[in-house]
Amino acid sequence: MFHRLLIANRGEVATRIARACRDLGVEPVCVASTADMGSTWLEDMEEVVCVGEGPAAKSYLRADRVLQAALQTSCTAIHPGWGFLAEDPRFAALCIQHGVTFVGPSPAVISRMGLKSPAKEAIRGVGLPVIPGSVGTLDDVEEAVRVANEIEYPIILKADAGGGGRGMRKCDNEAELRESFPTAMAEALSAFGTGRLYLEKFLSGGRHIEVQILVDAFGNGVHLYERDCSVQRNHQKLVEESPSPVLNQEEREELGAKAVAAAIELGYRGAGTIEFLRSAEGELYFMEMNTRLQVEHPVSELVTGIDIVCEQLRIAANQKLSVAQADVELKGHAIECRINAEDPAANFQPSPGKLEIFELARGEGPGHIRIDTHLAVGDTIPPYYDSLIAKVISHAETRELAVETAINSLQASRLEGVKSTIPLHLAVLLSREFLANDYDTSSIPGWTPDSTS
Amino acid sequence: MNQPIEMLVETEGEKTYLLAPTVGAFTCSLPKGLLLIPGQRAGSLTTLGVSHPVIVPTGCSGRIVSERFERVVEPVSFGTRLYELEPIGEGVSFGAAAASEDSSADLVVVSTHAGRFWHRPSPADDAFASTGDVVEDGAVIGLIEVMKTFTHVHYRATDGLPARAKILRFLIDDGAEAESGAPLIEVEPA
Amino acid sequence: MAHVPLSPIGQPSDSALDSSTLEKNRAELAERETVLAERRAIVEAGWGEKYVERVHQKGKLTTRERLELLVDEDSSLFEVGTFVNWGRSFGKLASPGAGVVTTFAKVEGRWCVIIANDNTVASGSWWPMSPEKIERAQEMALRLRLPVIYLVDCSGLYLPEQSKSFPGRTGAGHIFKKNSELSAGGVPQVAGVFGDCIAGGGYMPIISDRVFMTEQAYMVIAGAALIKGAKSQHLSSLDIGGPEVHVHLSACADVRVPDDQTALIQIRAEIAKLPSSGADYYRTGADAHDPHFPSREIGGLLPSDHRMTYDVMDILARLVDHSYFWEVLPDRGREMVTGIARVGGLYVGFVANRQGLVDDPVHHDQVKPAGILYKEGIAKVSSFSRACNSDGIPIIWLQDISGFDIGVEAERLGLLGYGSNLIYTNSTNDVPMFTVLMRKASGAGYYAMAGLPYEPVVQLSTTITRQSVMEGRTLAIAAFNTKLDDEFEIATDDPEERAKIEAGMQATEERIEGDMDPFKAAAQMDTDEIVALDDLRPWLVALAEMAYQSTGYRRIKNPRIWSMHDIAALSAPRG
After folding, report:
1. Core-most of A48, A172, B103, C109, by most CB within 10 Å?
2. For B127-149, how does the pLDDT look when each residue is reduced to its tens digit (9 = 90+)?
3. Which residues does B contribute to its contact with C (CB < 8 Å)?
């Protein structure tokens, strides 16, 4: 096992990785921008290396400085967290070249799964269902029209190198497609550096279901069942849970088995998530694969009892998986709320500032609460990065009890100094729609833009 | 050698600190007691095996009062203090007043070499840049002909020039000879 | 440390140049590369449709069709010598590609050299330069220990020109000497005979390890036309030397197959028995990866006008994996770039010429033009070349060089001596070396940078290559020196004389410009191939894989113990 590991990230995920490091006897070292120096989460680090000024492009994205920091502090591994350099195959290759283990799959796999259409083709190749659409990227608008006619409108044009919901255009007919094509190409080129587009059938009203997998360097893999992340706003997840209330046990085992088999076939290594869209008719389609740790990993950890980050480190250290699929059992239900410093009443405007009061309630019951945060009372949230304050995760025997536990905790929590999304989360958890599973990705249960807290 | 990089400056009252501008191995440092002037080479920083000379930034000077690091090659972070300087003395300054941020007087792009300066790629083409254009660091503003070869001249936001600049006027004609350091273009912050 | 410290190089093309210059470069290049593509198509068409038809009527495939079936689906052809004999005619006849196709390609995942007579050109016969072209391909195979596949369909020498192709040191007979050298060197050779294989041509398959004959193939020392009594006995060459004779009776061939297609399948199966490529073993845990900056941008960044400068690091960045590079000895000899990168995941050394201006190492605050060799640059390249040879790192020489420094100081510094050491080093290296004449390839600089006289395994030109002893203007200055002043301006006031001298100098310049035409060089085999800039990266990946395919014949040190690390350790700043 590595003696020292560099965390190439900040905030909540840095705290999380440091905790796993300490659990395994690994010393965590962390990079920080000038804006983050002195922050609460850095207190737990063995060493901190400042890598540049506040804006991510001047610090956390400086691959050369981040790797140099690892080399200078005798770190033999780097954990990239999520975002920043986590899915940059060029960075992964640089680490390997300099003898520092990159916690994640190989650069070739990251590359392949990072572009949407090669990933789709790879997945199609290993037998998982994909959303009907173009094979590879589109050569021109004529090909787009041909494919669209085959699969039937409405369709959605997507950027091959896109993500985060950007670079997508829905088209209801041929005229719209012809009009949107050149604009979508130009947008993709300027946002992602390449104008390659592909096309899919537009499916609305679906559920976002993703499977957590772990594969070691020897081709052994397990899945940790699925998460349901259908409560979203602008493709940003707000509430995640495990297991998914819309799958039965047979379905989830089949999906999980297929997902892990696909990952192994692709030469995957490490922790990863395969995301699916489940249509209103119950059909499951592959969306994309994330070759990194995900924000919502705690729900899977709570229901399976497996520490995903520790497993990442073990896999990176060439250890065999310590669990077999038979050892993975679902116990209870977990729900996570991402508490962001945003004002839901003001169109989710970011609300940076100082946490004057910061009390997240833990002991209300009936189930138990896990809180993942990097902040303490008195901390200021800088404007350069994401607005996550904390993740509040409830775990109980049933979904209803998990919902109740989450509500009790949020109602008893106090957060002042910045606006937060707690009112939104409460509205969702208290809504009839959420409890009855009567919602999909197209709307937030219990909430509309003109709701107030 | 590779492009020199300027150290960062931090002032605390009378004291000036020169800071590492990146993460790397610092070496070839100068000893206590020496005088530093703007542009002077004061060591070398190596990141991933690539070394750059570090230089004293414009408008900064002083006498080194800090001891050298104990190690010949010292790993440093962004912002690590490399030197502590004290002022040299009354009335002695090396262009300390030169780079004042809100002074818009005399922001001039100068020629890095002697040669013939051309405004356009060829007689038939449009000029690379014209009066009124806004240019950013890296933009091509002309061509310089030296010993029968032609090199593109890029706008660089160094030596006090702003990251975004509006071209006020050209100070040299198309095709005229320029000495090294000759003024080429007058700009203002955009 | 024993790591190979690659780090990012290069910048986005829109930071390097403004968009109108990028477009202009691309447009000028496109003009030339269109000509290249057109001429390539002409050569590939052989003697044309009529002859293609003739081949088909005999129930045979054309050479190009055979290649398509032979070569792996995911492999392109990397041809050399396409333009040998370009622009040359023999009476009224042309010999496109000298009547033979010589190419690198992958067969069953192994890079091979394929030598295939073009049966649409005078029934595949050998013209002047055909033997030299074949021998060059064999030499490449020998140097890299790549299996050779002969697709034989050759009616012997094109007799009217026999005096130029038969007797000489590099005449047709030398092909069989090379066959022998390949065999003695342990290089597998497999031959398919698809038709004629007459006279001297007969020896080529026999020396090969495994020979397949179709039912239409025959091998004879002399054809039926020269055998007394053949007419009255109604004996054809097929009767005399067909598969019936050679597969069964004489054992000069091994396997008899009904047709072209079957022969090709069998040849593939034969190649599949050979050791697989060592390339993946030598990737030392990395994967092949495209450059981070797209290689198709090279065309916009490399100006056709040789007086225009550019940043060579931007070009290198678009040729190497991830755009990562380890520049070795960066602080000395700034006019040269030496360093290591991965190409297709495999370590390769690069030597390239900086362009523009570099600091003068002799005078403070002065600059000197790059694209020229000065003392430090020569010494650096020499050391680098020796280290690569010692370490078994194949070297790619990217030439854009005007020559050596000249003048009083240059001579006193002993550039002749330093240059000679570099030449000695390159002449005695046994690591594979590949040369690309990117743009200027002038005089002693062309020699110093491992030009063809120094026998790199392959030399490639581009459509903007300028290959000559010196630039036209320089030659004109030398020729008319007595009429010029100190600044090389015409030293006369007489307008008539001035006009005469100007005209004379102009004519001299134009003649050299004509000599510099890459097609002229390619026709004479002064370069191996002309490539489009978009094809350069795929070529380099192919060459790297070829250099690491065969094991056991050349030194390949593991990177931990490279001599290169000694150089870096001794030149790292400290103190």
Report:
1. A48
2. 999 999 999 888 889 999 887 78
3. 1-2, 27-28, 44, 46-51, 72-73, 113, 121, 125-126, 128, 138-140, 146-152, 180
